[in-house]
Specification:
Protein name: PorT protein
Number of strands: 10
CATH architecture: Beta Barrel
Helix content: under 10%
Number of domains: 1
Organism: Flavobacterium limnosediminis JC2902
Radius of gyration: 21 Å
Strand content: over 45%
CATH class: Mainly Beta
Structural class: mainly beta
InterPro entries: Beta-barrel_OMP_2 (IPR025665)
Pfam families: OMP_b-brl_2
Distance between the termini: 28 Å
């Protein structure tokens, strides 16, 4: 919820600047970077925050595994290819730090009940950006596409499992991503705050060596989902 309040506050500020007579977002603003979006290719970078989660499906109905999300950090690059006036193709490779704490309600021992899942993802999204008509120095857009993530903290090669305090995941994950944002044109650069959801398509869990493991035995699938708030500069 904190992330949504941050974005809401940002939109409120933008709306305030958009009132008649206020600065470059007023009723008759000075148009900044008028030909910026006509470039065939341009580059940028982004910084942001993430909140990762897991979606669990079970073999037999049981108590849900509780996922406690924490706030992580994103940083990456942007390559933008203009296809037509309102459509762009984007490649946004980035590094994402995240942690999820899993609480297993059926395990009594407080130490075994908790598993900290720390992940460092290298994410490779290929996205389509659909922009609206530019109004002064503001241009809203929506974005969507697919991504491939490499989890550097997956422990996928480890022979030990949860019985040895080792939580294991698949190294590669395929996802789809959807989101929206606003391009704001300043005198020397373009600033683009956005919010995006990511949804894993494949099961990421590596089962324990013991089939009836209390950590993995009843899990049919475990898929990533999450929310990103990014601040891009072009």
């Amino acid at each position: 919820m904190k992330k949504f309040f941050v974005l809401l506050s940002l939109i409120t500020c933008i709306n305030g600047f958009s009132q008649p007579g206020i600065g470059m977002f007023g009723k008759n603003p000075i148009i900044n970077l008028e030909n910026f979006d006509k470039q065939r290719v341009h580059w940028g970078y982004y910084l942001g925050f993430n909140s990762y989660d897991f979606k669990f499906d079970y073999i037999e109905p049981d108590k849900d595994i509780e996922v406690q999300s924490t706030t992580g950090f994103n940083v990456g690059l942007i390559g933008n290819l203009r296809i037509m006036e309102y459509l762009d193709l984007r490649f946004e490779p980035g590094l994402y730090y995240a942690q999820r704490n899993l609480v297993y309600p059926n395990i009594e021992d407080p130490f075994d009940r908790l598993r900290e899942v720390k992940s460092t993802y290298i994410n490779f999204p290929l996205l389509l950006k659909f922009s609206s008509k530019r109004i002064g120095n503001i241009r809203p857009y929506i974005v969507g596409g697919i991504s491939e993530s490499m989890n550097l903290g997956s422990n996928y090669k480890a022979k030990d499992d949860n019985y040895n305090e080792r939580f294991r995941m698949q190294k590669m994950t395929t996802n789809y991503e959807v989101g929206f944002g606003i391009d704001l044109y300043f005198e020397y650069f373009k600033f683009s705050p956005s919010i995006r959801g990511i949804f894993g398509l494949n099961d990421e869990l590596i089962r324990d060596n013991t089939p009836d493991s209390p950590w993995t035995g009843n899990v049919d699938s475990m898929k990533t989902r999450g929310v990103f708030i990014n601040f891009a500069f072009h």
